[in-house]
Amino acid sequence: xxxxxxxxxxxxxxxxxxxxxxxxxxxxxxxxxxxxxxxxxxxxxxxxxxxxxxxxxxxxxxxxxxxxxxxxxxxxxxxxxxxxxxxxxxxxxxxxxxxxxxxxxxxxxxxxxxxxxxxxxxxxxxxxxxxxxxxxxxxxxxxxxxxx
Length: 148
What we know:
The chain is an alpha/beta fold. The protein has helices at residues 17-30, 56-76, 92-103, 117-123, 126-133; strands spanning 5-9, 33-41, 83-90, 107-112, 138-142.
């Protein structure tokens, strides 16, 4: 099996860190490139009294600036020669799948938050959607019980 490019989506949460560690380790072992993806979730706009108080584009730019800083921090923690950062806007599962397809990745390493019950029913699971629809193998990494 050849692994030349690994995609690791991150939301910068505690649950995403173990997946990042696995992805970095695998990239080193396989001498593969690493693509770190952060998806800025589409914000729901509800017309109302506050409309126009904070222009949506300004809000997105602010979120993107913060994400860029976090991505730079993550990239500085790795000594891999081939690391790419991607920040996109949309729905996380769809953007992860699109990025994997466009960049021809060989493996996706994604963290799970271990939601269950009502949370899982209401919000679904990004990792689950990615596993079911990915164009390549997916390694899911669960947050360790000691960190929950």
